[in-house]
Structure formats: C-alpha cells, structure tokens
Write a structure and sequence with these properties.
This is Pyridoxamine 5'-phosphate oxidase family protein. Helices cover 20% and strands 41% of the residues. The protein has 165 residues and is α+β, with helices and mostly antiparallel strands.
Length: 165
C-alpha cells in the first residue's frame, strides 16, 4: 500500500494526507491531462492531451511527427498533471516519471479498450505490435509513465502530499 507524506510547510496544519486510492481516483477520472517533456535544447514543452490511468500508470499516445514524440526520443523524463482550475475545491495531481514506449498487440489492446471505455467512439483505437491504428491511417505511439513520485495538492483544506514509489 502506498502512503503519502504530507508537507505541513505548504498547507493547513489540520490537513491530512489523502489515501492513495483517492489520488488514483482523481487520475483515473480526469478527462484532460497536461504532459511536460523536454526539447533537445533543454526547454520544456507542455501540451494538453487525453490519456488513461491503467494498472498503476498513466498511458498516452502521440503521433510520430509531434513535438512530444521528438522530445521523448532523447529524454524520457516527464511530468503529467491534472486537476481542477479552482482555488477552493478539488485536488491537483502531478506525476513524475519516465515515459516508456509500449509495443506488442497483447499489451496495447487492453490500453485501446481503456481509451474506448473512457472516451467512447471519439478515441476508438485498434492495436498492432507498433502502436494504435485507426481508419485514417495514423499510427500513434503509445507510452506509459509509471510514477516515481506523485504530489497531490488538496484545496479544502490546502495541503501538499508526496507519494514515492
């Protein structure tokens, strides 16, 4: 079981660390995430994207011609964020880890099914050994980010809790 460590310097002294299952619920239910990768010159690149929390990791896909794909070719370390754009309610979550490419149809089909379940026909993928496929001929590459560190920012009361893996 994963237990968080609350940092009382950054919140209400009455705050308590949320259970890891509550943080995972935020990650699983989010519709939109922000992925930050690093360009070859060291500048950050942040973009919104859809994804799924599946088997304890964040999964996303990207086209071969996209900036995030080029960035991942040289630097796999990323952050993934999600939450609510509010001050007094909700929980914001930051996942730190390395993006690892997923290959093999047997590993990709469960992720394609997870996308379909979460987003419906807008994100209905097929899978082969290299990545996802679709009727338009695109073949996005699929990555998973297994967390090395997760920070959950509570807002009512304000708190900061770190989970290490």
């Amino acid at each position: 079981m994963t237990t968080g460590s609350i940092d009382l310097r950054f919140g209400d002294p009455a705050a308590t660390a949320p259970a890891w299952t509550d943080v995972e619920r935020v990650l699983a239910r989010a519709e939109l995430y922000w992925l930050t990768t690093v360009r070859t010159d060291g500048r950050p690149h942040t973009t919104p994207l859809v994804g799924v929390w599946h088997d304890g990791a964040f999964a996303f896909c990207t086209g071969v011609g996209e900036q995030k794909h080029a960035n991942l070719e040289h630097a796999p370390l990323v952050t993934v964020t999600t939450g609510r754009n509010t001050w007094r309610s909700g929980t914001d979550v930051v996942v730190e880890g390395a993006a690892e490419r997923v290959t093999g149809a047997e590993r990709l089909w469960p992720l394609a099914d997870a996308w379909l379940l979460k987003y419906g026909q807008d994100w209905a993928w097929e899978a082969d050994d290299e990545g996802f496929t679709s009727g338009d001929g695109s073949q996005p590459r699929v990555y998973v980010v297994r967390p090395a560190k997760v920070i959950a920012f509570g807002k009512s009361p304000h708190s900061q809790t770190t989970y290490r893996f």
